[in-house]
Amino acid sequence: MPNPLRFVIVLHNHQPVGNFDGVIEQAYQDSYLPFLEVFERHPSLRIGLHTSGCLMEWLDVHHPEYVDRLARLVADGRIEIVGGAFYEPILAMIPSRDRIGQISSYTHWLEQRLGAKVRGMWIPERVWEPTFVSDLAAAGIEYTVLDDFHFKNTGLLDDQLHGYYLTEDDGKLLGVFPGSERLRYTIPFGTAEETIEYLRGIAERQPGAVVVFGDDGEKFGTWPETKKHVYEDGWLERFFLALEANADWIKLGTLAEAFEQTPPIGKVYLPDSSYREMTEWSLPYARLAEYEQIVHDAEHEPLWPQIKPFVRGGFWRNFKVKYPEADEMYTRMMGVSRRLEQLQEAGRNGDGMEYARTELYRAQCNCGFWHGAFGGIYLPHLRNAVYNHLIAAENLLDRAEQRAEHWVEAQAGDLNFDARQEVSLANDRLVALVAPHRGGQIYELDVRTICHNLMATLTRRPEAYHRKVLAGNQASADKAASIHDRVVFKQEGLDQRLQYDTYQRKSLLDHFFDNETTLAALVSGQALERGDFLTGVYEARVRRNPDRIQVQMTRDGNAWGTPLKITKGLTLEAGSSTLEIAYLIEGLPKDRPFHFGVEFNLAGLPSNAGDRYFRDSHGRQLGHLGTQLDLQDVDSLGLIDQWLGIDVGFSISRPTGVWTFPIETVSQSEGGFELVHQSVTVIPHWLVTGDQHGRWSVTMNLSLDTTLAESRMERPAAVAVG
Known about the structure:
Layout: E1 5-13, H1 21-40, E2 47-51, H2 53-62, H3 64-75, E3 79-81, E4 83-84, H4 96-114, E5 120-122, H5 132-138, E6 143-147, H6 148-152, E7 165-169, E8 172-179, H7 181-186, H8 192-205, E9 210-216, H9 226-232, H10 235-245, E10 250-253, H11 255-261, H12 276-281, H13 285-298, H14 304-307, H15 319-322, H16 324-345, H17 351-363, H18 380-400, E11 408-413, E12 422-427, E13 430-435, E14 441-447, E15 452-453, H19 466-471, E16 509-513, H20 519-524, E17 539-545, E18 548-559, E19 562-573, E20 578-586, E21 594-603, E22 612-615, E23 621-624, E24 629-641, E25 646-669, E26 672-688, E27 695-705, H21 707-721
């Protein structure tokens, strides 16, 4: 055929920052390695490959021989390395300076390690905004690939999507290739012949067309049941053989070749978008459920093919609204990025600053910031990883500033872009972020010695897919199918575990319960709230001394219609790992007890593990951290996580009852629906009555002892000295 069809395959391999080594190793054995082995047996074929920087770094440490093989294939001209932002951030979630920095630094790494000439890049999750063009061009990128869904949102038709377009921002140009949504579903889930026939139809209508398939490499072995389908049953081998058998009219090439050897179709301005499913997932859950029902009802109607191109979901940035926890990570990240820039402008430089920048970039990895058919924000280890790297970056910036060994400071300002003032209490060991206008809650508590945020919690909320959980339908688990089509339950009885919170699961939350409220009522969500302090607005003032700071918060409210005033103070001293928490309630009647409790939620302390447990004042174990405890007349409680190396201790100035229970979510992942432990709830509670002045008070110390973790950090140095 004188003018063959150009077919471009671009694979995107990625594992998130914070993922478990065993999971990545399994993906390597199931996907990355076997794909390469099959591909190497077909020397006439060429593809594009994007491997995220976080995965590439892992591969270079654990399987450098694989990276060496990639380098040889690059040298042979068989693989075009497609670059990107180093740690796979959603570009809309990071400032322009970090977009350019991430792309440029990864390009340099790839050129040094693989000998690759990087000209194109992968857009993480294909989340696109038109203003990205200027930053990509500034970073040396010439072209990228997005879904054809982006192009159809401008009104383009199928037969206008077989090539590439130019797009522009601020006078800067970028080539954009449409990736076929149709092929995302046939490869590898349809037969090889189905794809060949689809391409044949395009070739007959449009000689010389360029067709791009760009999608996850994990579809080839890591997604459920695909290893058997793709390799054991020979799908990939048959697919490559079919491409070779039709080489007279299918020219398998790279994005670089298509960009160099074919002219652009024209110019296009693409709207804010992502792939179709992602736009749907970003919708509020009620609207998403309505959207899914409408599509289900309409997709068999005669007019649906004409209507479908005009149907789209929401805007990616609204994940920060749908999940406030994503916004908390985002705003914290923005603060670290801004501080790094300010120090750089002030002339701070050196290795410490570069290490801090790398930690910041790692924290920007996208996977913990959203949720769809993948676990995303529901996976605690991904949220923990974001905070781990942010806190590590802050520690490095402190060193770059050459701070004193022990220090303490308080700052008030709009820390999370909500036009309200939050307060930061920080010293050399802890950081506590407090929101006076949201019940005076602590919404972040960083233990700096282990780079862990104890408030990286998640609130239980409805999800559109919970309808499937309640329906209890189960698809066949032994059939290879798209993740988007699977309904598999990893545990039984998940429909009985669905529960939703009416407030954010943070700490220093002030409750008034009925006097007879029980732990069972609280756990089941049946306990009634009798006060207006839980989410009410507190007035705040900050007191500063050279070695001691305090935020004091006050609210005039009521419980059971009785006017009450609560004053609570949070105090931190330089060099201390203890928060002092003091409460004063005024206006209490002398002859009527009120049931008052203070709720804490602690994240990153898993349940059902022998080395994570509650302890009493004598060090006796009271059960793993998923245990429901109903303790009476105690003055202390500890939570031990030996893996993290932390002992979280509560000491209380007067005898108290304490309730504990786990917060668990029913969430969706690529493996199916599963129960995920999110945090541990601890609620000291009292029946309080006023003294002769109508007052009642208590002081609690929250100590965060990381001696065990620090002893592990010191061991290598001790061994080296010996």
